[in-house]
């Protein structure tokens, strides 16, 4: 398992993967996503570089609730093949911290 933490700042977006997903085998990812900041809502997304640059949620993998809520996504890695993973702020304007656990 890997844990990623970050903060969505004034841009309203945060890049999680530095390059597109390159899956060579079938596998299932279990992703737990949590927003840690009250008054904000975040979305975990997958898409192209252009989607990220535009702040567009091409494929929404998970949404967030308030602090303390974790949402589970179970997805075949082939569904996000060739896409980058990123977080977008959907509600609020404050910097919003988050935690992602991937197994």
Notable characteristics:
mainly beta, 8 strands, 103 residues, four-stranded antiparallel sheet
Low-confidence stretches: none
Over all CA atoms, what is the radius of gyration?
13 Å
Q: Strands across the major sheet, in which order?
A: 1-8-3-6
Oligomeric state of the chains present here: single chain
Strand fraction = over 45%
What integer is the average pLDDT? 95
Overall strand count: 8
Helical coverage, percent range: under 10%
User: What structural class is derived from the secondary structure elements?
Assistant: mainly beta
* Biggest sheet overview: 4 strands, antiparallel
Shape: globular
Straight-line N-to-C gap: 4 Å
List the secondary-structure elements in sequence, H or E: EEEEHEEEE
Counting DSSP H or I runs of 4 or more residues, the number of helices is 1
Ordered list of secondary-structure elements with their pairings:
Layout: E1 2-8, E2 13-15, E3 28-35, E4 41-47, H1 49-54, E5 59-63, E6 70-76, E7 84-91, E8 96-102
Antiparallel strand pairs: 1-8, 2-7, 3-6, 3-8, 4-5, 4-7
Could you characterize the architecture of this molecule?
This protein has 103 residues and is mainly beta. Helix content is 6%, strand content 50%. The chain has 1 helix and 8 strands. The chain has one helix at residues 49-54; strands at residues 2-8, 13-15, 28-35, 41-47, 59-63, 70-76, 84-91, 96-102. It has a 4-stranded antiparallel sheet, with no helix packed on it. The protein is globular, with a radius of gyration of 13 Å. The protein starts with a strand and ends with a strand. The mean pLDDT is 95.
